[in-house]
């Protein structure tokens, strides 16, 4: 997603389906500083990536050609970004920092001769140490996360297509469970029940779609008008997902520009859904460090506060308990075209 406020909604939808984020940073004088400023897009993208559960990060410092391939500028950016992503929640030691030029192809696929000072990136995770020189090396070093195939099916829809000669084809990423031909699914919150006729990935038919797979699946007797992005496909016979009338958000951290209270109605980005949700009741204010309650039914919360809030979606929405289905239980709170909070 480009670094522009108008595309953050798309960025949230895509990020909710990702295993790893690549943060592209412009090295040019003024460009980097604008992106990392309080309202900058570099900052917001990194924060949203962590909020939406992406735990692996690669930082590509782009446009190095505009800095005359300066080692000093690269080191300055690495230091600044390391400090910031640490505050967000990432461990800088587990992040590969790669100086690149997309325009000239430096360090994209092959190591460049324009930055002789660059000895390569190194990162350390629970799986061990890995090293490399290029952005492609860093992508190859992404660790596949464990895939929860034993849980009930949850597949948030990214889009729904009408394909000539085939019919209605919803697409999305399998978050948990397995989807296979012959399975009966009931889309939530649309409450449309249908049979899966076929499952495909990259134009190849699959016997089943597993967690992490971005699949398209053909469904019987369903119009593209009946289901939409933000719907969730579960197995009708195994713990199906339901529409949510209201839900408690126990781990809500807020950073709004002013004070907010009961009745506040920002937009929530949860998996692929974007729905306005009303803060029905501020139940308690919580100490961010200890997680303990410090005030019951507060009148308002402000920047830096954490709270337990009863939320009511203004339109039908599918949300799950974070402990059961993490990808469907974490969300970003947005208002006035900026991220003002996150929670589970």
From TrEMBL:
Cross-referenced Pfam families: GTP-eEF1A_C, GTP_EFTU, GTP_EFTU_D2
Domain Tr-type G: 1-149
Coiled-coil regions, chain positions: none
Gene3D superfamilies in the cross-refs: P-loop containing nucleotide triphosphate hydrolases, Translation factors
Localisation per UniProt entry: Cytoplasm
InterPro entries in the record: EFTu-like_2 (IPR004161), GTP-eEF1A_C (IPR054696), P-loop_NTPase (IPR027417), T_Tr_GTP-bd_dom (IPR000795), TRAFAC_GTPase_members (IPR050100), Transl_B-barrel_sf (IPR009000), Transl_elong_EF1A/Init_IF2_C (IPR009001), Transl_elong_EF1A_euk/arc (IPR004539)
GO cellular component, one term: cytoplasm
Encoding gene per record: tef1
Gene Ontology molecular function: GTP binding; GTPase activity; translation elongation factor activity
Protein's name according to its UniProt entry: Translation elongation factor 1-alpha
Stretches that traverse the bilayer: none
Family the UniProt entry places it in: Belongs to the TRAFAC class translation factor GTPase superfamily. Classic translation factor GTPase family. EF-Tu/EF-1A subfamily.
Organism encoding this protein: Meira argovae
Keywords: Cytoplasm, Elongation factor, GTP-binding, Methylation, Nucleotide-binding, Protein biosynthesis
Chief subcellular location: cytoplasm
Superkingdom, taxonomy of origin: Eukaryota
